[in-house]
Design a protein that fits this description.
The chain has 351 residues and is an alpha+beta fold. The chain contains eight helices and 14 strands. An eight-stranded mixed sheet has the order 1-2-10-7-12-5-4-3. Helix 2 crosses helix 5 and helix 3 packs across helix 5. It is globular. Keywords: Iron, Metal-binding, Oxidoreductase. This is Fe2OG dioxygenase domain-containing protein. GO terms for molecular function: metal ion binding; oxidoreductase activity.
Length: 351
């Protein structure tokens, strides 16, 4: 079976994008880009100094400020080796560019099941949703009982090993970031992770083929990530944007950096102090782009609520407790629509 993917359109040489990919005017990217502002400097870049204890106080302060002001930042000297990062990008690119669509389709995910594992293009289960100009491979990587590398690409031959190694290292980085986020909120270092419970990690390799009409499309529509913390690396093409104070700000590619996104469950746990960041990717007509996102999430049965230590009569809970799996299924059936559909439905109306 050949699945319906963007790469097929691209290889067929379409000069006009099919109507399902055309965004409504209010969602289209800016052409030309917005005028420069202080924000165009981009999201904060935080040197983690390989978590050297000497720098920890300073790092924690910067991280707390980045979480509350942006919900996103890039980290350098994070402990993931540049050779491993390069290997992950290389195996991902090799799979997308050197295997035929028919070969890749052997790994097709189920387009009607939310976040199913494998190769695909349609993110939302909803039939009438506007499609992203993106193909992807979603891997279920952690806990170990979810991980079955035989379901991942067999070519290139080091694909599975590289992805497993990356998964293990990124979980450790996500845990360190969660503990620093907890501390920067004045909580015990284990607080966020204790509420999240056993980390469920998915890794998505996204491939954005060149698009003949980038002014009409999005590589990935505006959304916030729904789990706890997402870690992303992108190649040097650029296209990722975060939404801040009414405008879209480009996340400049920075070699060897990892982008950290505060996701919805951290917004809830922090009782709104660390809002999840709305982001999207724009397309371009010249170069294909590759990114690798690693999502660190609670299990579907986990109940998530604001940390008790952040709630009192002066600062009442701003979100209802909710089972994470319901959040996930609402997201995939209703669509992200900014954040309104899902996370805003959990908001409690305090003055
Ligand atoms: O490709 C990107 O830069 C963004 C990907 C993303 O936001 C996601 O996978 O959730
Ligand atoms: Fe995302």
């Amino acid at each position: 079976m050949e699945v319906s993917v963007v790469q097929t359109l691209c290889e067929a040489g379409v000069t006009h994008v099919p109507s399902q990919y055309i965004q409504p005017p209010q969602n289209r990217p800016h052409q030309p880009p917005p005028p420069p502002s202080s924000e165009s400097l981009g999201i904060p870049v935080i040197d983690l100094f390989n978590l050297d204890p000497q720098h920890l106080d300073d790092v924690r302060t910067k991280l707390g400020r980045a979480c509350s002001e942006w919900g996103a930042f890039q980290v350098t000297n994070h402990g993931i080796s540049s050779s491993l990062m390069k290997d992950v990008m290389d195996v991902g690119l090799t799979f997308f560019t050197e295997c035929s669509v028919i070969e890749k389709s052997k790994y097709a995910c189920d387009p009607y099941v939310a976040a199913s594992e494998g190769y695909g293009s349609r993110m939302l289960v909803k039939e009438d949703s506007i499609l992203d100009w993106r193909d992807y491979f979603d891997h279920h990587t952690l806990p170990f009982y979810r991980r079955d590398p035989t379901r991942w690409p067999a070519f290139p031959t080091n694909y599975r090993g590289v992805m497993e190694e990356y998964s293990n290292h990124l979980k450790e980085l996500a845990q360190k970031l969660m503990s620093m986020m907890s501390e920067s909120l004045g909580l015990e270092s284990s607080c966020i992770e204790d509420i999240v419970g056993e980390i469920h990690q998915n890794i998505a390799v996204s491939y954005y083929p060149p698009c003949p009409q980038p002014e009409l499309t999005l590589g990935i529509q505006s959304h916030s990530d729904i789990g706890a913390v997402a870690l992303l690396m992108q190649d040097d093409v650029g296209g990722l944007e975060v939404f801040k104070e009414g405008r879209w700000v480009t996340v400049q590619p920075l070699s060897d950096a990892i982008i950290v996104f505060v996701a919805d469950q951290t917004e809830i746990i922090s009782n709104g102090k660390y809002p999840s960041v709305i982001h999207r990717a724009v397309t371009n007509s010249n170069r294909a782009r590759l990114s690798v996102s690693a999502f660190h999430d609670p299990s579907k049965t986990r109940k998530i609520a604001p940390a008790a230590q952040l709630v009192d009569k002066d600062a009442p809970a701003r979100y209802k407790e909710a089972v994470y799996g319901e959040h996930v299924s609402n997201w995939y059936s209703k669509g992200p629509e900014g954040k309104r559909n899902v996370i805003d439905s959990l908001l409690l109306n305090h003055q």
